[in-house]
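Please check what follows.
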Amino acid sequence: MPGVYLFKHGRKVLYVGKATSLRDRVRSYFDDELILTRGPRVVDMVTRADRITFETTPTVLEALVREATLIKKYSSVVNVEGKDDKTFLHVVITREDIPRVLVVRGKDIDFKTRRLKSDFNTSFQKSDFHFRAIYGPFPSGAQLREGLRIIRRIFPFFDTAKPVGTKSKHQAAQREFNVQIKQSPRNFNAKEYRCTIRHIMLFLSGRGKELRMTLEKDMRHAAKEERFEDAIKARRQLSAFDHIQDVSLIKDENLEQNPSTNSGQFASQRIEAYDTAHLSGTNAIGVMIVVENSTPAKSAYRIFRIRGPKKHVGRTTSYIQNDDIASLKEILSRRLGHPEWPLPKAIVVDGGTAHKKAAESVLKEVGVAISVVAVVKDGRHRPREIIGTRRAGIDETDVVLANAEAHRFSLARHRHARSRLVY
């Protein structure tokens, strides 16, 4: 379960953190090798703390926003220790006829007047505009930008350097808006856009529950007035918000939480994940994707055409391509036949204990000692359980990322192959 956690000493908050799995993240602070993986500053914090509290969130994206809200509220010591918290990024909403959503460093904001500092060398045109709202600080710039990218898919917004028109220039705003969100042309509605901005403000304030209630209310109200297009839009936004695919947002979490793993023997932590795709038991392919230091290494991705085990019927020999375990063993065997490819720290497979044991059996046959992690999915193909991360010594965030990327890549390659009828 994702969420935020707080290390406290009495009433004083020492540290605020976020996690895709609260249980695993908090448990990691009590590992025997904490000083090697986290460093003396974190060890000192854990020693000083006398209790831990936590809050769960529906998504990792909401954990990111909640973390920023709590850091601002408590000025938690360890989060800003050794740093100037004004270098952290903030999200600002401009007070304009057509508001923009911008990312600005705290050191460039005059928080008293709620505007950019006069000496700020800005690329923003007419930088004397006021801010309607300021959110942050966000410790991770990469995660903030990824989070905004996800939000923008649901609630499109402007983030241009220049103001985007006035009431008399909505046609120009429409053209720019369509380019920005990469959608086909449509009528730009300033009133509708300002409603979208209010939704974004609710979310960035950490009021996700209230946002959901607002969308449900908008949907019912539009349907009652027979504004069915508006009702459908609200329903789609609500559905997208409730099913945010934010696995890419957490890809840097492990490194940012554990900066000491950037050096020494863990300078390049390679994880390989495998997945297969087939159509009614035919045209099967398998893929290997690579994640290094929590980042997909796409140049190392590989595709395998799966032959499958032989099946003899009379004098006819065919191949079985819908046996997932047999396909997995075939892919791994062929992969291990490439000594020029670096061996990974861990291998991630899609499936349960049976798939994990099948992969381990292949590794044992060739005498290679690599940990195997299995990702068990629920009925909606979402991770329900992850088996083997502790023994593998890798973070769940990297496992989820690798598994999701392998599934995405296998489906994309299979669709491409089907469209060309070449396998």
Notes: The longest helix spans residues 396-420. Residues 221 and 231 are 8 Å apart (CA to CA). The chain has three domains: 3-80, 85-206, 268-420. The first strand starts at residue 3 and ends at 9.
